[in-house]
Amino acid sequence: MLSRVANSVYWLSRYVERAENVARFIDVNYNLTLGETDSLGNQWAPLVYTTGDQDSFAERYGEPTRENVLRFLSFDEENPNSIISCTAYARENARTIREILPSVVWEQLNKFYFMVRTAAKISTTLDQPQEFCERVRLASHLLVGATDATMSHGEAWHFSRLGRLLERADKTSRIVDVQYFILLPDARDVGSALDVVRWSALLKSASALVMYRRQHGKIVPDRVADFLILDRHFPRSMHFCLMKAQESLRNITGSASGTFCNLAEQRMGQLCSTMDYTSVRDIVQHGLHQYIDDFQNQLNLVGEAISDDFFTTQQQRKARNAATMSQSQSG
Amino acid sequence: MRLASYQSNGVFDEMFAPNGQPRPSGARFVERLQSLSDGSLQQRQKAAELSLENLGITFNVYGHSAGTEKVWPFDLLPRIIDANEWAVVERGLKQRIRALNFFINDVYNERKIFKDGAVPEDLVVSSKTLRSQCLGFQPPQGVWCHITGVDLIRDQDGQIYVLEDNLRCPSGVSYVLENREMMKRTFAHVFQGMSVAPIEDYAEQLLQTLLECAPAGVSNPTAVVLTPGIYNSAYFEHTFLAQQMGVELVQGSDLVVEDGYVHMNTTRGLQRVDVIYRRIDDDFLDPKNFREDSTLGVDHLMDVYRAGRVTLANAPGTGVADDKAVYAYVPEIIKYYLGEDAILPNVPTYLCSDEKQRSHVLSNLDKLVVKPTNESGGYGILMGPQASQADRDKCAAAVRANPREWIAQPMLKLSTVPTLVGDELKPRHVDLRPFVLCGKDIYVMPGGLTRVALREGSMVVNSSQGGGSKDTWVLRGGQSMPPLTPAAQETN
To answer: What is the Cα gyration radius of chain B?
Structure first.
């Protein structure tokens, strides 16, 4: 398929997944803070860290009040990671590749975008954001379902799944990182009651609570980490996302299991096989924050390699080679 | 639905005869329309509009901020064409396209028509759209105009005239197909059993036309649609046609010339391309051969084309026959190459390059429509009777400064079709753009794009200037319409 089209289908599904995850973060945090009397800043600031946009937030909004954070994450068109920006980018990408999308997928995405745009115009949407967040989540599920059910599971579909899973792995890693930062000091305090509500909320934000219970029963911090990072069956765990992303990558290239034919596959394979043989004890010993930081860096390298191996055109390669040639000659 | 008050004064109405009775082609439809309950039509019209928005069936308007998308305006009431009348139109279109293909080939090769004096040479070679890069070129199958969208209008005398030929990159066919879908979706019980000629095989016909004209010797040719990109006014159509044909929609940056062939950049490296249905104007196709500031084209594309290793549809250079001054000679062109009289007449046209005709135009600016010879989309036109004196003066100066670039035609009264305006049916002026495909054979899509000027009295049908569209029904030959079946009758 065309490199440009592969690029668009990949980013289309990344943006949809991103919008869904932001909605999840908002929803869970809102539920958590409902009964709280704490100063609001403490409750809402972590959310901005989760999406990694704290600098631009501080610059434009200052105080992380509930209203500010909700607006920034939902409807701020200048925030490239807000729900409205993500759906708009997803739709723009889809518009450039309509010819390869099943019409039902395009129609759903179009409706998704209109829904968010309409919600943004209603001043009361964010007073009680749960309903909006649920609609975003459902719209995303509907899109993924429609894509799975109506699009040939060929190259374009695999690029779409690749984008979605890499985005999901990244977002799950971020929420685990931020929530652990808040929760762990409490958990280590001898004798202090475990904040079961918050730990449950973390699981809920990944729709993982029920599945976790069936797997591990009681809420135990390390097991929660184990489940969200390393579980091989839960579709939002980092490990699961990577396994399936690797599967899609192999389907795209046709490489046999355990082999690679380009940098993207090599990096993906390295990251996956390390995860295959990692236990949660290793992670805790290594330092969870450090582990996730490393994971995110490697994930970014995988993303860069994908872009380079599949989305770069002959003309871009030539231009780049010419640029490096002239650099090395002058230097 | 009451129709008693419907009146179209002084112009030809496609649905109703002057005595207020429906014409035979529209009788069955009007009967069904009258059986609809009050408000039902409006309800369906709204449903259609919502559906168009959700499906993202849009066009972009230039002169507004980049990327302004507008939902395609669709009016639910169809324009109906009688089978016998259509048969004449179809023959006329085939005749015209055959002759024009011969003409273009002649202009770029032997130039016999000039030597024989049927068309003045200086008029043609002075056309801005003559492409010297195409001299001596012979395209596969001898086809220059693979896809044509001829604009037809009906004047108040009831005669159908050709207004423009549109031999370069005519757009609108996707809307014809979507309008029909919309009609079936929202007006099914009215459409049912109407014996309307199907148009749904257009994409198949188009693909076949493109593949038939692939460079000789390519056994399994790859075709693509080349678009200028998402901000082009017809972008929706480009994606639609690529999707319907199942071929790649490419932008200039997706293509590259290597080793004398055109390739596309894919996730598995370069892949050869044999036929390009290009929706980019000649000027922008290849910065190395045409405008060098083009960012939409492909370097050296024309070199590959001239070497016969890729087919461009339509061929570069077809604009020479699309020039409105050359248009005036199409009846002579038909006569010269085919030895036949034109089946579809031209609108009488005054060439401002001719001194006598020019002075007639200049002294009758308040009665004529003055058009630039090389614009499309309705840009640059002076509607004499409605224009201000200042506009007429400006136009006169432009004509004097550059007579070759202007033609004039009498102000025609376009025919009308009932159109839903608020809660009532009102006559609104329409034109018709049928689409013609030319490969080994010529295919004419039954019907075409009916554009409607939604403003009262307006004759400007362009969607960029407040025009809408309608489904066009060509009734199938030899069949009168079947009686209304009970299932098709609306009861609520």
So the answer is: 23
CA distance A107 to A92: 13
**Domain segments of chain A: what residues?**
1-151, 152-313
Instruction: Tell me the average pLDDT of chain A.
Output: 90
Which residue of chain B is at minimal alpha-carbon distance from A91? B56
**Residue in B with minimal Cα distance to A310:** B267
- Average pLDDT of every residue of chain B: 90
B319 and B376 Cβ atoms separated by less than 8 Å: no
CB A307 within 8 A of CB A317: no
CATH architecture of B350-410: 2-Layer Sandwich (3.30)
Angle among Cα A23, A25, A27 to the nearest 5 degrees reads 65
Q: Take residue A84 and report the two structure tokens written for it.
A: 């409205």
Residue of higher predicted confidence among B39 and B435: B435
Strand order in the sheet with B255-258: B255-258, B261-266, B269-272
Nearest neighbour of B254 by CB, restricted to A4, A92, A114: A4
Q: Which pLDDT belongs to residue A194?
A: 60
- Residue B189, CB half-sphere, CA atoms under 13 Å: how many? 16
Helix (H, G, I), strand (E, B) or coil at B222: coil
Residue listed under structure tokens 């009451």: B2
> Across the interface, do A99 and B243 touch by the CB < 8 Å criterion?
yes
Residue of B nearest to A107 (CA): B55
Does A6 touch chain B if contact means CB atoms closer than 8 Å? yes
User: What secondary structure does DSSP assign to A94-163, as a single string?
Assistant: HHTTGGGS-HHHHHHHHHHHHHHHHHHHSTTTTTSTHHHHHHHHHHHHHHHHHHHHHS-SSHHHHHHHHH
The model's pLDDT over B148-200, given as tens digits with 9 standing for 90+, comes to 999 999 999 999 999 999 999 999 999 999 999 999 988 888 888 888 999 99
Q: Where are the domains of chain B?
A: 24-342+412-488, 350-410
DSSP state of A310: I
> Bridge partners of B473?
B80
| pTM of this structure | 0.85
B447 contacts B474 by C-beta, under 8 angstroms: yes
Q: Do A3 and B240 touch (CB under 8 A)?
A: no
Structure tokens at A239: 């490990």
Neighbouring CB atoms inside 10 A of B350's CB total 21
Contact list in B for residue A155 (CB cut-off 8 A) is 267
- Say how far apart CA B182 and CA B54 lie, in whole Å: 12
Question: What local confidence, expressed as pLDDT, does residue A205 receive?
Answer: 85
SS3 B459: coil
